[in-house]
Design goal:
Layout lengths: L1 E4 L9 H10 L4 E7 L11 H10 L3 E7 L7 H6 L2 E7 L6 H10 L3 E6 L17 E5 L15 H13 L5 E5 L7 H7 L3 E4 L1 H4 L4 H9 L4
Parallel strand pairs: 1-8, 2-3, 3-4, 4-5, 5-6, 6-7, 7-8
Helix pairs in contact: 5-6
């Protein structure tokens, strides 16, 4: 089980310290929520901040592009330090070419699906993916409540991947905390993204440990 703290929930006035702490206490990667205020109702940051964060850490960076026409920015995010890049299936004209470009640039390619997007829309592409990002909230703001009905989608994705002996990992993002992590893991998640579930707790080490132990 990999744990990916979402930096959007960190204290940006102490960003370097926040990153050093999660490195020390066992985070596997850093999740970067990239929002444009168009595809989702919020704006966060772009490649320049990714570059700054990359200089602060040895952890791999996981860029979740919640933006329209993400293919215009793949190269820039990869150049500035992203090791994992995911885009929403709802935002690109050619999913296969987008996946191919990311992987060609030695980066792990992922596709994200919103709660209302049927899993069947992504099934034709799973064989080409390094990871599938299943959203358990409507993207845009951290701290939202987990939507339990999405567990069924996670289970279906796990069954499809295992049945077809694929290597695609399942990443789950949205309202993840110690209360729901266990059921998410049982449904089939390989990577848990948590923002408030880590950064809004008093003990990051304990929070990460509890999330990781959910797989047991």
């Amino acid at each position: 089980m990999k744990i990916a703290p979402s930096i959007i929930a960190a204290d940006f006035t102490k960003l370097s310290r926040e990153i050093k702490v999660i490195e020390k206490v066992g985070a596997d990667m850093i999740h970067l929520d990239i929002m444009d205020g168009v595809f989702v109702p919020n704006i966060t940051f772009g490649p320049m901040i990714v570059q700054v964060i990359n200089r602060m850490t040895h952890l791999e960076l996981d860029a979740h592009l919640m933006i329209i026409k993400p293919e215009k920015y793949f190269a820039r995010f990869i150049e500035t330090g992203a090791n994992w890049v995911s885009f929403h299936i709802e935002t690109v004209a050619n999913v296969k070419e987008s996946i191919k470009f990311i992987k060609k640039n030695k980066c792990r390619a992922g596709v994200a699906v919103n709660p209302k997007t049927p899993l069947k829309e992504i099934l034709p592409y799973i064989k080409d993916l390094d990871f599938l990002l299943i959203m358990t909230v409507h993207p845009g703001f951290y701290g939202q409540k987990f939507i339990p009905e999405i567990l069924r989608k996670i289970e279906q994705a796990r069954k499809f991947i295992d049945k077809n002996k694929l290597r695609c990992l399942i990443q789950v993002d949205g309202g993840i905390n110690r209360e729901n992590a266990k059921v998410v893991c049982r449904a089939g998640a390989d990577i848990l993204v948590a923002g408030a579930g880590i950064f809004k707790t008093s003990d990051y080490k304990k929070a990460i440990k509890e999330l990781r132990c959910s797989r047991i």
